Amino acid sequence: MIEIVGLTKRHGTKLAIGDVAFTVAPGRVTGFLGPNGAGKSSTLRILLGLDRADAGTALIGGRPYRKLRDPLRTVGSLLEGSGAHRSRTARAHLTWVARSNGIPKSRVGQVLAEVGLADVAGKRVGTFSLGMGQRLGLAAALLGEPEVLVLDEPINGLDPDGIRWIRRLLKEYAKGGRTVLLSSHLMSEMAETADDLVVISAGRVVTTGPLGEVTAGHASLEEAFFALTDPAGRLS
Ligand SMILES: Nc1ncnc2c1ncn2[C@@H]1O[C@H](COP(=O)(O)OP(=O)(O)OP(=O)(O)O)[C@@H](O)[C@H]1O
């Protein structure tokens, strides 16, 4: 369970997010949807303890990230690439992440297989394509078998096969009673993947709810999105 209440963050005089509030329920895939610059990354960075809010709280399983005892065993995350050093092999990177988080080394082989990188485990990360880097980042997120997954734009760089694969993986993960939050600006992708939606625009949450409720009365999620974020139709 993720609970975000009254989250506000300014960069200088610019409001990145204002009074953002939503919950993410276990057993479902929740899509965090908004255009570029809407405030998705700002929200997720605070949730993951990488940035401080000016106001409000962001809790994972009832605690702020910085108070989690074994963070990677509670929440797996993917933000902007794998974060692996280019000269390391995929296996060495994951082994290092596992060791520094008290995760058994046996998990490394398991997650490499799970994300489809077993054959290139001995290759240097610097030789990886964007999609392979995304898979490696996801492998690190899965290492600690966390109850919660938080993924920022996880399908960036993935080909259609990769997109299908990650969609299935996230649905399976949630089906087991775990919590999955993923951000994207791609509406068609969200319509295929998410059970619930949190729609954000210009730093404010404009609606939350099951996908079917958010799109009710609209031809598509895209139509719903534009109606919600621009009720006067000025953008069309
Ligand atoms: N470090 C920063 N300094 C100044 N402004 C920032 C900073 N980080 C974010 N912003 C601004 O805050 C707003 C929200 O940005 P954020 O990156 O959270 O949006 P986003 O929804 O993740 O967008 P994208 O899909 O482009 O990543 C934007 O206007 C952005 O320019």
UniProtKB/TrEMBL annotation:
<feature type="domain" description="ABC transporter">
    <location>
        <begin position="2"/>
        <end position="227"/>
    </location>
</feature>
<dbReference type="GO" id="GO:0005524">
    <property type="term" value="F:ATP binding"/>
</dbReference>
<dbReference type="InterPro" id="IPR027417">
    <property type="entry name" value="P-loop_NTPase"/>
</dbReference>
<keyword id="KW-0547">Nucleotide-binding</keyword>
<comment type="similarity">
    <text>Belongs to the ABC transporter superfamily.</text>
</comment>
<dbReference type="InterPro" id="IPR003439">
    <property type="entry name" value="ABC_transporter-like_ATP-bd"/>
</dbReference>
<dbReference type="GO" id="GO:0016887">
    <property type="term" value="F:ATP hydrolysis activity"/>
</dbReference>
<dbReference type="Pfam" id="PF00005">
    <property type="entry name" value="ABC_tran"/>
</dbReference>
<keyword id="KW-0067">ATP-binding</keyword>
<keyword id="KW-0813">Transport</keyword>
<dbReference type="InterPro" id="IPR003593">
    <property type="entry name" value="AAA+_ATPase"/>
</dbReference>
<protein>
    <submittedName>
        <fullName>ABC-2 type transport system ATP-binding protein</fullName>
    </submittedName>
</protein>
